[in-house]
């Protein structure tokens, strides 16, 4: 009989990749999904859907029943929000509720998906890792703050209740299935459509979403309870990322580099406009995003490679798959 695994966030980008990887490994997968969540990423997958919500502990208990492995991937991932308190409820209280539900169900191992957003960044292009010093005061904006507090809450459950949790910290996943899309996916789409003629001097650690998913399964099987593992790929300057996307789309790469200070007023105006318009989408340029971009967000996955056997493909392969997926799904015009 196949081992039963629950995946929260399975309708989303990383969660769907984790679900696909688990199915390929022979797991019976149960996907937690909100009642009205789009389920495009679950089409064609042999998953059992359990309707529930991170803010409804009773639904989490029902979803976790009978599962020996739980992957808590779901999160409210936005760089701008009208309601920071709601983001904290989902990311902090929701994470705590999932861990408690999994423990009550008797799960032998829980993999909690945190983020490199909770880690320190040394600056100067030096890569951060699991041990880089950082505090709450270093967290910029509600998303990073809520993920930092969520990881703290999970760590308390490990220490106080012996929760069998392994923590993974993905960097910047890209690839197929970014249906929303994520903030990074939006950047890829805009660049592919020739709508990013300029850029700021920053950098990201780019990783294929399927490598992140494989890292989750490695964490389940080989990770040490209470430890965290960066699941990253290749460090790339933003200018190089945009140049590669331009090459893939047959466009000229952007060459204009704008100072961070020059973009900040644009972000302020974009956020003010979004607040005035009911139902407006997240601004493409945000104040928190510009503040974060002042440091190159470079990270090392050496610990995951050493302890889990984690590997990642070249970033160009991830960019190719992302552009191809967006093109095939009509996102590039």
Summarize the SSE layout with pairings.
Blueprint: E1 4-8, H1 13-24, E2 28-33, E3 47-51, H2 57-64, E4 69-72, H3 84-104, E5 109-113, H4 141-161, E6 165-170, E7 172-174, H5 183-192, E8 198-199, E9 203-208, H6 209-222, E10 228-231, E11 234-237, H7 238-248, E12 256-257, H8 260-276, H9 287-292, H10 302-308, H11 315-328
Parallel strand pairs: 1-2, 1-4, 2-3, 4-5, 5-6, 6-10, 7-9, 8-12
Antiparallel strand pairs: 9-11
Helix pairs in contact: 1-6, 2-3, 3-4, 5-11, 7-11
Q: How would you describe this protein?
A:
The protein is α/β, with parallel strands linked by helices. The protein has a domain at about 5-175 and about 205-235 and about 300-315: 3-Layer(aba) Sandwich (Rossmann fold). Helices cover about 40% and strands about 15% of the residues. It has helices at about 15-25, 55-65, 85-105, 140-160, 185-190, 210-220, 240-250, 260-275, 285-290, 300-310, 315-330; strands at about 5-10, 30-35, 45-50, 70, 110-115, 165-170, 170-175, 200, 205-210, 230, 235, 255. It has a 7-stranded parallel sheet, sandwiched between helices. Helix 3 runs parallel beside helix 4. The model has no long low-confidence stretch (mean pLDDT about 95).
């Amino acid at each position: 009989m196949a081992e039963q695994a629950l995946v929260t966030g399975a309708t989303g980008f990383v969660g769907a990749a984790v679900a696909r990887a688990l199915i390929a490994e022979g797991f019976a997968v149960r996907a937690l999904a909100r009642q009205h969540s789009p389920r495009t990423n679950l089409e064609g997958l042999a998953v059992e859907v359990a309707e529930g919500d991170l803010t409804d502990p009773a639904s989490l208990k029902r979803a976790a029943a009978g599962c020996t492995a739980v992957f808590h991937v779901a999160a409210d991932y936005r760089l701008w929000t009208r309601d920071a308190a709601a983001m904290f409820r989902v990311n902090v209280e929701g994470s705590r509720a999932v861990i408690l539900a999994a423990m009550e169900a008797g799960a032998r191992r829980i993999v909690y998906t945190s983020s490199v957003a909770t880690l320190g960044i040394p600056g100067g292009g030096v890569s951060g890792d699991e041990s880089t010093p950082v505090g709450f005061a270093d967290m910029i904006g509600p998303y990073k703050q809520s993920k930092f507090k969520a990881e703290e809450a999970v760590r308390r459950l490990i220490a106080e209740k012996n929760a069998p949790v392994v923590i993974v910290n993905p960097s910047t996943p890209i690839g197929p299935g970014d249906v929303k899309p994520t903030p990074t996916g939006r950047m890829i789409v805009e660049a592919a459509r020739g709508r990013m003629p300029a850029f700021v001097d920053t950098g990201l650690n780019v990783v294929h979403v399927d490598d992140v998913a494989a890292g989750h399964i490695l964490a389940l099987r080989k990770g040490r309870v209470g430890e965290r593992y960066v699941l990253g790929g290749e460090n790339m300057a933003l200018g190089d990322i945009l140049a590669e996307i331009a090459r893939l789309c047959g466009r000229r790469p952007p060459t204009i580099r704008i100072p961070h200070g020059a973009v900040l007023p644009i972000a302020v105006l974009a956020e003010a406009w979004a607040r005035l318009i009911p139902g407006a989408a997240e601004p493409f340029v945000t104040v928190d995003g510009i503040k974060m971009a002042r440091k190159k967000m470079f990270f090392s996955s050496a610990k995951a490679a050493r302890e889990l056997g984690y590997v990642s493909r070249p970033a160009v392969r991830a960019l190719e798959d992302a552009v191809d997926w967006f093109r095939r799904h009509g996102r590039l015009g």
